[in-house]
From TrEMBL:
InterPro entries: DUF5597, GH, Glyco_hydro_42_N. This is Glycoside hydrolase superfamily. Pfam families: DUF5597 (PF18120), Glyco_hydro_42 (PF02449). The keyword Hydrolase applies. It comes from the Eukaryota. One of its GO terms (molecular function) is hydrolase activity. Residues 46-196 form the Glycoside hydrolase family 42 N-terminal domain. The keyword Signal does not apply. Keywords: Glycosidase, Hydrolase.
Length: 570
């Protein structure tokens, strides 16, 4: 049996566990939760009740190697055994040298030895000089080696206790890397490296790369030299960071991205050599335009920042992801992943499925209803391996409601091609003004267009979300529709179509014995507006004072619907 791994299939990139495609329905625990088997004893059943099949939790360098060379895996071993007993997968988060841009999870023997493990220095405008911060310099080769040895030993242990079972399915290497408080490390070693300029091998790679990320090209594409001009250049030739990436913080960020990605790549590669599980690193996102953030009722600061150093400078944001890929993928890291709280959800999903070999995985996102509605876009439209609301051990009701439906229909999702599925959501309507998000979602499936709108009610339309999957081949007019708070109608795209309607609609439920979907009711009349559109109602439709209950509350939230066309020749 192969260890958990990623496979490129006609249905997209899939996580294979026990050699079977597996849909992760994950949640991330609070930072310290996985450190205690006793604490977790009540968490496992609570997560199962919310249909969560995977938990993300941290393993910290300070816990497993409190004394250099002396490792303690007793708590982790028990955690893995308990997860296996409860039928829950684990994604381990390695909090080694870096967690949210600082090194607070490094062991005391690392923190105290500033000569062996020099720190980052930043410019402090208030003091008018430099100050040292609690971050191991990414130019510290000894720090990378020590972290890599610890991570390699961790992965050796995971292989020893779990390779037969596949409980641990992926590993995150470090957490939200990058520098906060300044755009660049100002330590003597970093200053010297910055003056040496851009490594020629990196320039050769970027200049010759035909598939650079669109965000990279927007910022830096016109500055890259002609690839032919680099062919015979010595590695000592000097191209300043500013001449390639722009003066000031742009050059600083590219410099940091190069050195942090090399550091993280060194650590990840050591772990891969011990146990080749899928590995990724996560991203504290920047923003270019504050108007793209979804910050209703929240201060701007929670959305990240527009300047390197306000968001972690050098982390794997889309515009420097090609630098990261040069140093860290695919040999060390299988993909880069976004932590996605307040940004334009669909745009970030698109950014992190470029290039096509980078699968989408969302290690952190909002756990409230706002966040839960959006997972449908990640799973159905972008083929996500999983989406992971943060802090689920203290609140998972909202995501559990969506995960229940995803669990019931996972086989359909896993076995559909990207061209045969679409996710969507509708947020709460504001009390005044226009809604911010899409009010109509459309997609052509072969010769028929699927149109998704909010569910009809006589009162105020509610929020909603779900997915549509085309059943059969790409010429089929039959669809699985899943979710609540929306309605679906169809439009024929062939020449000569004069009418498109609903031929059949069946409400489905899960057979408790077989796990398969079976027909509960045949829908028509009010439920399909007499063949015009199929309503997937919300849990509590607003009747708006209308005395006749023609829009019923949601029941199973799963249906099959078949459309048909008429071509009458006039």
């Amino acid at each position: 049996m192969s260890p958990p791994h990623l496979a490129h299939t006609e249905h997209g990139i899939r996580l294979m566990v026990q050699d079977k495609p597996t849909l992760l329905l994950p949640g991330e625990l609070h930072n310290s939760s996985l450190s205690s088997p006793k604490y977790m004893s009540t968490v496992w059943p609570a997560m199962k009740a919310q249909h969560i099949n995977t938990l993300l939790g941290s393993v910290t360098w300070e816990m497993i190697e409190p004394v250099e060379g002396a490792f303690d895996f007793s708590s982790l071993t028990q955690i893995i055994l308990d997860a296996r007993k409860h039928g829950i997968y684990l994604v381990l988060l390695w909090f080694g040298s870096y967690k949210n841009g600082i090194s607070t999870y490094a062991p005391a023997w690392v923190k105290r030895d500033h000569k062996r493990f020099p720190r980052v220095r930043v410019w402090d405008a208030q003091r008018g000089g430099q100050r040292t911060i609690e971050m191991i310099s990414p130019l510290c080769a000894e720090g990378a080696r020590a972290d890599a040895r610890a991570f390699q030993r961790l992965m050796e242990h995971v292989r020893e206790v779990d390779s037969e079972f596949g409980t641990v399915v992926m590993v995150q290497v470090e957490n939200e890397t990058g520098l906060l408080g300044d755009s660049r490390d100002r330590s003597p070693r970093a200053e010297e490296a910055f003056r040496e300029g851009v490594p020629v091998d990196l320039l050769r790679h970027l200049a010759a790369h035909e598939n650079l990320h669109p965000r990279f090209k927007e910022r830096f594409g016109t500055r890259l030299p002609d690839p032919e001009s680099l062919v015979d250049k010595s590695d000592k030739v000097h191209y300043s960071w500013a001449s390639i990436f722009g003066a000031g913080t742009a050059a600083d960020e590219a410099f940091m991205a190069y050195h942090i990605s090399r550091y993280v790549g060194t650590v990840a590669l050591a772990g891969k050599s011990a146990y080749n599980l899928p590995m990724y690193t996560n991203t504290w996102l920047n923003f270019d335009d504050a108007s793209t953030l979804d910050l209703t009722g929240y201060p701007l600061v929670v959305g990240g920042g527009a300047r390197p150093g306000i968001y972690p400078s050098g982390g794997p944001c889309p515009h420097v992801s090609d630098i990261w890929r040069y140093n860290a993928t695919p040999a060390a890291l299988d993909f880069l992943a976004p932590d996605l709280y307040f940004h334009d959800y669909e745009r970030v999903c698109a950014d992190y499925t470029f290039p096509a070999e980078n699968p989408l995985f969302v290690p952190e996102q909002r756990r409230d209803a706002h966040g839960a509605r959006r997972v449908w876009v990640a799973y159905a439209t972008y083929g996500a391996l999983g989406t992971s609301p943060f802090g689920v051990d203290t609140g998972a009701d909202e995501i559990g409601r969506e995960y229940k439906l995803l669990a019931q229909t996972s086989e359909y999702l896993l076995n559909s091609k990207p061209s045969q599925r679409m996710g969507f959501f509708f947020d709460e309507l504001p009390e005044s003004g226009s809604p911010k998000g899409k009010e109509t979602w459309t997609r052509a499936f072969g010769n028929i267009e699927v149109i998704i709108e909010r569910a009809f009610v006589f009162g105020k339309p509610g929020p909603g979300g779900g997915m549509v999957i085309q059943l059969g081949d790409e010429s089929s007019y039959r669809f699985l529709v899943v979710g609540r708070g929306f309605q679906v109608r169809f439009r024929g795209l062939e020449d000569g179509v004069t009418f498109t309607g609903i031929l059949e609609a069946l409400e489905k439920e899960v057979d408790e014995q077989t796990g398969e979907l079976v027909t509960l009711r045949v829908l028509n009349g009010d439920e399909t507006r007499s063949g015009e559109f199929l309503i997937m109602p919300n849990d509590e439709p607003d009747y708006g004072g209308f005395p006749i209950a023609v829009t019923i509350p949601a029941r199973t939230c799963i249906a099959e619907v078949e459309a048909y066309n008429l071509c009458e020749g006039y």
